[in-house]
Amino acid sequence: MNPITIRLLNQQLVAPQFSDPAEVVGYMGAMQAQEYRMMRWAVAMRTRRPSHKAFKKAFDSGQIIRLHLMRGTWQLVSAEDYWMMIGLCAPKAIAVTRGWMSSNKISIPDDELYHVRDILALTAADLGSATKEDIVQALADKDIRMDDHRLSYHIRMAEMSGTLCSGELLPMKATYALTANKVKPTAQMDRDEALAYFTRKYFQSRQPATLEDFVWWSGLNVSDCRKGIALLGDSIHVEKWKGRNFYLTDDCRTRGFRKGKFLLIPPYDEYLISYKSRDIVLPPEHRHHAHNNSGIFQPVIAYDGTVCGNWSPFKDDCQATFFAGQSGRAERFDERSSIAEHFSEADSKGITEAWQSYLSNTWRIVKSLVGAKKVTTAKTVANQA
Length: 385
What we know:
The protein contains 15 helices and 11 strands. Helix 6 packs across helix 8 and helix 10 crosses helix 12.
């Protein structure tokens, strides 16, 4: 088993099978959307022809929904899975959120919770897409004032109750809509059916993955995760790799990988955050370059699936630092180092193409650098444009 290749293929990061962003989100089950701007690239890079316009269309039409859910964090889910996810995951997510409130010494009594929720719902219904500033004003009109931290918990609880969901996609600012006006009702699943469906979505899109990976990602209890796997029966099996048990589905993708591909991976991407077993693609000695112990994830570069550097998504040119070369050795590159000294011309072209694909999906246009004779790193790739 080659776990890196299999993860790349089944995460749709190489040889993607989908053209529609909503299909990607539906296939993945849920995708962490902590960074409002970069969630678009996380989806787009998993489509055959990345398009920010296609993402916005799917988001604005309600085919893709953003809300706080698993682990109490921002997620993208498909409209067809929304109500199933609320039923299965929201109770545990609400309990986690209440724990955070308690640790922050914030107590919201039920009468306040329901009164504010009604105001949030009316505001979202009246405006179609309400910003946080709109919500603050609506509360002030009712002579209700609170700090931003307390308000954020009210909004999260309204999302996890199925009252609010994402509104219109704006460049920098989240908006909220009334779920009843955005997401159509779907046929209700019983809990075992929903658990099996949810479990299969995880393993088909993240395989090979361990039980511990699934427990972490789903936010569910260990017993629920074990039951979900058991419910899949013969459609899932175990393969042992380096002493660990990994689950794979009967339709696991193993063909279509080609060497020599660079990926510019956004922060909080499912390629890392889906797992506890990140060491498969991220050498442990370089873990601090990708995320810290507080759960803050950085944008990373992967070469043939192995995380080897960082990049800056919001710069005018591509600024990248490589901390591991193709050999896996720890190598530090700075502004004075040339990527051509360590990578072939084909590899330099690969980084350039990855950067240009990203730029075309972030409302920026740059001159093509394919065929450029020299590409430098740490202030890199596109600074010649």
